[in-house]
Design goal:
The protein is an alpha/beta fold. Helices cover 33% and strands 24% of the residues. The longest helix is centred in the first third of the chain and has 17 residues, at 115-131. The structure holds 5'-O-[(S)-butoxy(hydroxy)phosphoryl]adenosine (WT7).
Length: 650
């Protein structure tokens, strides 16, 4: 058996069980097995019913799903507009005054945006984009802080059939340029700056650097947020508020093909080049609308939902913008960090807006644990009725802490497993139905077919295995932009007829699924996916570095931490900090190694392959097993000695 699976098998499992309260069950939108049964009997029929009931169509589809492995098309022939579904239909139904966003800036300034406001703003900005030459089928890049304009920009693109590609504001200008170039975007939407940790971080200068390297960009739109001084290039750069003020307030929502490209979102794979994951219109919207409604048991009349993700990640796309707005939800949107001005900021926001549903990441929960229970205890969190987790496996201790100190001991927890590629939640409890176990994402949702397989692709019904998906689902990726060969190989090449997610998992005696992390060269740092190869490429792009090997080592707070082993070019010396900053410049601060070890030699097999598994063992302080295939064992002894005496940097 593969090393990963052996490690998986060695883990033990939680026996505690938590059923939802009788009150929660009786109020829940679904509280029995009926959705599971319906989907089991008729997979496509089940999804078709969701599409009919949750989405407004301009023209009906002729085929629910066309499946030609590995390509799926959903609701073929159907026509709809995503921005109409997220905005117009709520306003037309008389809910224009309903709050869509309670936005809170980090300094404490606030904005209340209703559905009517959002619709007007989106129409104006859609017209402004058209005036800048954006047409259906074009790509538009978005590089913004967490401001309402991020949602406006995404919806404006959707309204006119341009695909957006949002790049997280923490990425460097180089990373932004790479993504713009791959997508060949015409327009870039950015801001002067945003607030973070009590200061304005400038975005426009990064955007300018990127545009120098990105010849496809014709126009740059700049949202004023930081009020920091930024140079504007005449003819190319436009203030958002100027072009919106001049724009026609009416822009009809044009019906789009169900399979029209809605967005690209870049994510890390096992090579140095990020993948532009493609998501389309009808299937994606159905999937996120359905999961938002049932996983979060969303009640449009009374719930206030808060997802703490950034719009730069898939969680922000699916559960801040499309899923909640399609359901007419009222949400909280927060710009800044969780510890400004103090460690209780999140809890003060929940209390202030009386949030009822809270969705965050395990790494955040573990950080809150470190800050202490006195922080949430300062606030009344009794408005909460459901809490969720996403991004990485949640350890039972963090789960229990979350339930007790945030959920008041009564809120169900939905631990939701999914990926950028799946578009929406795939494995999760249904909160009014499922008895949860701390640390388990429990079962595939109705309409999702997941199975574990062994090394040879054989079905595993108990114990450890590789997580695969066996039936197409509406929100699934439609491919990798510009590289369909890679799409086939990465996701469909490993196990015949199955989508391979890249995760290991285990099925316990009761059939519960326990997600156990990635089994490939992809790290998960604070819930963000970073490829080891990408960080290695960044390191070797520094003139003093000859060779680099990067591993993800277990870390109590961030899940995994990036540890790099570096060999310098003959006679050269360089500071660890210089290399860490170099990685930040190449990729972004999130990819900075936590520690860098310099070594005259990397441990390699006799055929020259770097032994990463061994380096991971060293980084995690484990005793080394068999090193007989190693070309030079003294290299490892030396690394181990130094790992033991060097404290890792924070
Ligand atoms: C990878 C996907 C899904 C939005 C955020 C991350 C890991 C995600 C869980 C969970 C265990 C999880 C997996 C997956 N992951 N959620 N509830 N339990 N692991 O999106 O960047 O596409 O990363 O995150 O390893 O493959 P992403």
């Amino acid at each position: 058996m593969d090393d990963h699976l052996q490690a998986i098998d060695a883990l033990s499992y939680e026996m505690r069980k938590f059923p939802p309260s009788a009150q929660f069950v009786s109020d829940a939108s679904t509280n029995d097995q009926s959705l599971y049964q319906e989907a089991q009997l008729d997979h496509e029929g089940f999804w078709a019913r969701q599409a009919r009931e949750l989405i407004s169509w301009d023209a009906p589809w002729t085929t629910v799903c066309e499946w030609d492995l590995p390509y799926a098309e959903w609701f073929v022939g159907g026509k709809l507009n995503v921005s109409f579904n997220c905005l117009d239909r709520h306003v037309l139904a008389g809910r224009g005054d309903k709050v869509a966003l309670y936005w809170e800036g980090e300094p404490g300034d606030t904005r209340v945006v209703t559905y009517a406001d959002l619709l007007t703003e989106v129409q104006k900005f859609a017209n402004a984009l058209k005036k800048l030459g954006v047409e259906k089928g074009d790509r538009v890049n978005i590089y913004l802080p967490m401001v309402p304009e991020a949602a406006v920009a995404m919806l404006a693109c959707a309204r006119i059939g341009a695909a957006h590609s949002v790049v997280f504001g923490g990425f460097s200008s180089q990373a932004l340029a790479d993504r713009i170039n791959d997508a060949e975007a015409k327009v870039l939407i950015t801001a002067d700056g945003g607030w973070r940790r009590g200061e304005v971080f400038p975005l426009k200068p990064q955007a300018d650097e990127a545009v120098k390297m990105a010849p496809s960009i014709e126009h740059v739109v700049v949202v004023k947020r930081g009020n920091n001084e930024v140079p504007m290039i005449n003819g190319r750069d436009h203030w958002y508020h100027d072009i919106v003020a001049e724009a026609d307030p009416v822009c009809a929502a044009e019906p789009m093909d169900s399979e029209q490209l809605l967005f690209l979102l870049y994510t890390s794979g096992t090579t140095g080049k990020p993948k532009g994951i493609m998501h389309t219109t009808g299937g994606y919207l159905t999937h996120v609308a359905y999961t938002f409604k049932f996983v979060f048991d969303h009640k449009p009349e009374s719930d206030i939902f808060w997802c703490t993700a950034d719009v730069g990640w898939i969680t922000g796309h699916s559960y801040i913008v499309y899923g909640p707005l399609a359901n007419g939800a009222t949400q909280v949107m927060y710009e800044g960090v969780p510890n400004f001005p103090a460690n209780d900021r999140m809890w003060s926001i929940i209390e202030k807006y009386k949030a009822t549903i809270f969705y965050t990441a395990p790494t955040a929960i573990r950080t809150f644990m470190k800050w202490g229970t006195q922080e949430p205890a300062k606030h009344d969190l009794s408005s909460l009725r459901l809490i969720g987790s996403v991004g990485e496996p949640i350890n039972p201790e963090a789960w229990m802490w979350y339930q007790e100190h945030i959920g008041g001991g009564t809120c169900p927890i939905v631990d939701t497993w999914w990926q950028t590629e799946t578009g929406g939640i795939m494995i999760s409890p249904l909160p009014g139905v499922t008895v949860t176990k701390p640390g388990s994402a429990t079962f595939p949702l109705p309409g999702v077919a997941a199975e574990l397989v062994d090394e040879e692709g054989g079905h595993v019904s108990k114990g450890g295995g590789y997580l695969t998906l066996t039936k197409p689902w509406p929100g699934m990726l439609r491919g990798i932009w510009g590289d369909q060969q890679r799409y086939r190989e990465t996701y469909w090449g490993r196990f015949k007829g199955r989508y391979f997610a890249g995760d290991g998992a285990k099925l316990d005696d009761d059939g519960y699924l326990w997600l156990l992390g990635r089994v490939d060269d992809v790290m998960n740092v604070s819930g963000h996916r970073i490829s080891t190869t990408e960080v290695e490429s960044a390191l070797v792009s520094h003139p003093s570095v000859a060779e680099a090997a990067v591993v993800g080592a277990n870390d109590a707070t961030t899940g995994q931490a990036i540890i790099a082993y570096v060999t310098l070019r003959g006679g050269l010396e360089v500071d660890e900090k210089v290399l860490r900053d170099h990685v930040a410049t190449e990729i972004g601060a999130i990819a900075k190694p936590k520690a860098i070890f310099f070594t005259p030699e990397l441990p390699k097999t006799r055929s020259g392959k770097i032994m990463r598994r061994l380096l991971r063992d060293v980084a995690e302080g484990r005793n080394l097993g068999d090193t007989t295939t190693l070309a030079d064992a003294s290299v490892v002894n030396e690394l181990q000695r130094r790992a033991a005496e060097t404290p890792a940097e924070d």
